[in-house]
UniProtKB/TrEMBL annotation:
Protein name: YbaK/EbsC family protein
Pfam annotation, one family: tRNA_edit
Domain of life (superkingdom): Bacteria
Domain spans labelled YbaK/aminoacyl-tRNA synthetase-associated: 43-161
Gene3D superfamilies listed in its UniProt record: YbaK/aminoacyl-tRNA synthetase-associated domain
Coiled coil stretches, renumbered: none
Length: 179
């Protein structure tokens, strides 16, 4: 199935309606051009279920994972964007990219509280200004990716090049090679 056929099957949300569906701080940071926002049913929000229901491969689903790390005596948060088909190399590549002394996945409550987003729908857009946003290099090789939209009831469809143009985004190799 070609991407334009897929888009016709999606429940696309018009840009003037984004504010009614997505958190305001996510909408503020979304690029004006090149992003398609579409609604998803709650039971198909998780990556595997979403992939099956909507026909996007796991290699086109970019998940945003929140980590907490210690560096220079302080505690920080970062968001990692990686494909559903790849495993993050947390203790190797990710730790090195962040220059972290210690690193762990953020607790669910903390991720939700600090991001102001729904768990399972956290996206790279709209995160606190002091968070680093690291995008795995493999994401950049895709023609388009599906990302969270801040809520479980919607997703973003965009070309990874949009992330590369975004000043907050750092591209780095963060995942293990596919098995």
């Amino acid at each position: 199935m070609h991407s334009h056929e897929l888009i016709q099957q999606l429940d696309v949300i018009a840009p003037e309606q984004w504010g009614a569906h997505l958190p305001a701080h996510v909408v503020e940071q979304l690029p004006a051009q090149g992003v398609t926002v579409f609604g998803v049913s709650a039971d198909a929000s998780d990556t595997a279920a979403f992939s099956e229901r909507y026909g996007f491969g796991l290699e086109d689903c970019a998940n945003t994972i929140v980590v907490r790390y210690k560096k220079d005596g302080g505690e920080h948060y970062a968001a990692l964007v990686s494909l559903g088909s790849r495993r993050l190399d947390i203790n190797g590549a990710v730790k090195a990219a962040l220059g972290a002394q210690r690193l762990s996945f953020a607790k669910r409550e903390a991720a939700v509280e600090h991001s102001g987003m729904e768990f399972g729908g956290i996206t790279a857009f709209g995160l606190p200004a002091d968070w680093r946003i690291l995008v795995d290099a493999a994401v950049m090789e895709r023609q388009q990716v599906v990302m969270g939209a801040g809520v479980r009831a919607a997703k973003l469809l965009l070309a990874p090049g949009l992330l590369r143009q975004w000043p907050r985004c750092e591209v780095a190799a963060l995942t293990l090679p596919p098995q």
